[in-house]
Write a structure and sequence with these properties.
alpha/beta, five-stranded parallel beta sheet, elongated
Length: 377
C-alpha cells in the first residue's frame, strides 16, 4: 500500500480534521522513514503505517485510539540501527578507562598519572592483550564491535558465544602466547586476566546474575562456573580475573539490580572480581506503571490485556501478569532488531490462536521470541 493511501486511512480511522492530520502526517513521515519502517521484526514488504492502522483498530472507540496513539507519539523510545552502533562505539572507551583504573590501583598511581608513567603504559598494553571479549547473546553485535575496534582488538580476542569449548580455549591460549612473544612479553604467562562479557540490552538484570532458589544463577554465574569446572582457572584464565560486564543499553532498574547482585556474587567468588559499565542507561522517568500520571493509558493497558500471552518463561514468583512487560519493567522501548519483553505488552504482544479472551491483542512491533512453550499456540 502506498504511504499516501495509508495516511488517508489512518486519518479517517482517527477522525482527524485537516489541520490535525497535516501535523500528524509530517511527524509520521519523518519517524517512519528514519526509524519505524526499518524495524527488523516486520515481514518482507510490511510497513509501519499498515501495522499502526491494524494495531489501532483493536481499540473500539476514537477516544481509546487517541490514548494509544498518544502513547506512541509522546513516549515510545525506538533505538534504530545507527543509534545502536553509536552505543557499541562507546564501549571501547569505557573498557579502556576501566583498564586504566585497574592499572592505577595496581601500581599505586593516581588515575591521571598513568598517561605519563612508562611502567603503567607497558602494564596497560599487557592487560589489553590479555583481555578476552565474549558475547553473552546474539544481540551483542560482537562482529560490529570487533570491526569498529580493528587494531585495538584482534580476532583471537573475540568470542561470539559464552559457552567456550576446550578446543576454543586451547586456540585462544595458543594465539595469546604468540602475541605475547611477538611484543616482548615472552616472560609473561599466557593467561587471560580480564574478560569482558558484552550484551546489547538488559531490562531487569534478572537473567544476568541472581540468587534464586538457594543458589546463584544467570549468565555471569554460568560463565564463571564453566571456567572453574572445566579446568580453565590457572591454565587459561588467571585466578583473580576481572570480569567486566558491559551492556550497550540498560534500564535504571537493571543497573541498580546488577550493581547490587554483582557485589553479592563477588563475595561468594574465590576466583573472580567484577565491574560493570553501560554505554547508556535509560532514565527512570520514561517508565510506565500503574501509578503513572497518564491514568487513561493505565486503564488502556489493563483493559486490553490477554492472559494468553503469558508463558512459563514470563512467570515470576510474584506475578504472572506481564501487561507492563516481564518483571513489570514498564518500558516503552523498541530496539531495531526486536522488542524486549520488558516493554509494555501493548507494543509487542499477540494473543494466542486458542485465546478465549474478548480482547485479542495485536502487536505494533511484532516480537521474535527466544523461548517457546511447546504445545501452545
Amino acid at each position: 500500500m502506498k504511504p499516501e493511501l495509508a495516511l488517508r486511512l489512518l486519518g479517517g480511522l482517527m477522525k482527524w480534521e485537516f489541520l490535525r492530520a497535516n501535523e500528524e502526517f509530517k511527524w509520521l513521515n519523518l519517524l517512519v522513514e528514519y526509524k519505524y519502517d526499518h524495524y527488523q521484526g516486520y515481514s518482507p514488504g510490511a510497513r509501519f503505517l499498515i501495522n499502526l492502522i491494524n494495531w489501532l483498530k483493536q481499540f473500539p472507540t476514537v477516544e481509546k485510539r487517541e490514548v494509544a496513539y498518544k502513547f506512541i507519539r509522546e513516549r515510545l523510545v525506538f533505538i534504530n540501527q545507527r543509534e545502536m552502533h553509536h552505543l557499541i562505539d562507546l564501549s571501547m572507551p569505557l573498557f579502556d578507562c576501566e583498564a586504566r583504573r585497574l592499572v592505577a590501583k595496581e601500581l599505586g598511581l593516581k588515575f591521571y598519572e598513568t598517561w605519563n608513567d612508562v611502567n603503567a603504559a607497558r602494564r596497560l598494553r599487557l592487560l589489553k592483550m590479555r583481555t578476552l571479549y565474549v558475547a553473552l547473546s546474539d544481540g551483542a553485535h560482537i562482529d560490529i564491535f570487533r570491526r569498529d575496534n580493528e587494531g585495538d582488538v584482534s580476532n583471537e580476542q573475540v568470542v561470539p558465544l559464552a559457552e567456550i569449548s576446550p578446543q576454543k580455549w586451547e586456540s585462544l591460549f595458543g594465539k595469546l602466547r604468540k602475541r605475547l612473544d611477538a611484543e616482548d612479553f615472552s616472560n609473561e604467562d599466557a593467561l587471560f586476566e580480564r574478560i569482558c562479557l558484552i550484551d546489547d540490552f538488559t531490562g531487569s538484570g534478572f537473567t544476568l546474575v541472581r540468587f534464586d532458589n538457594g543458589k546463584w544463577d544467570g549468565k555471569v554465574h554460568n560463565f564463571c562456573h564453566q571456567c572453574e569446572t572445566n579446568g580453565e582457572m590457572g591454565t587459561r584464565v588467571k585466578k583473580g580475573c576481572t570480569v567486566h560486564v558491559h551492556h550497550y543499553l540498560a534500564s535504571t532498574k537493571a543497573k541498580e539490580s546488577i550493581t547490587q547482585e554483582l557485589e553479592r556474587y563477588e563475595k561468594s567468588s574465590a576466583n573472580f572480581s567484577f565491574t560493570k559499565t553501560f554505554s547508556y542507561v535509560l532514565p527512570q522517568d520514561i517508565v510506565v506503571s500503574h501509578e503513572d500520571n497518564d491514568q487513561e493509558l493505565v486503564s488502556l493497558i489493563s483493559e486490553f490485556y490477554d492472559e494468553s500471552i503469558q508463558s512459563t518463561h514470563t512467570t515470576t514468583h510474584t506475578s504472572n501478569n506481564i501487561s507492563y512487560g516481564y518483571r513489570q519493567c514498564g518500558l516503552p522501548l523498541v530496539l531495531d532488531h526486536n522488542t524486549p519483553n520488558n516493554s509494555v505488552a501493548l507494543l509487542w504482544a499477540k494473543s494466542k490462536d486458542s485465546s478465549v479472551s474478548p480482547q485479542k491483542m495485536r502487536p505494533l512491533f511484532h516480537r521474535k521470541e527466544r523461548h517457546i512453550d511447546h504445545g501452545k499456540k
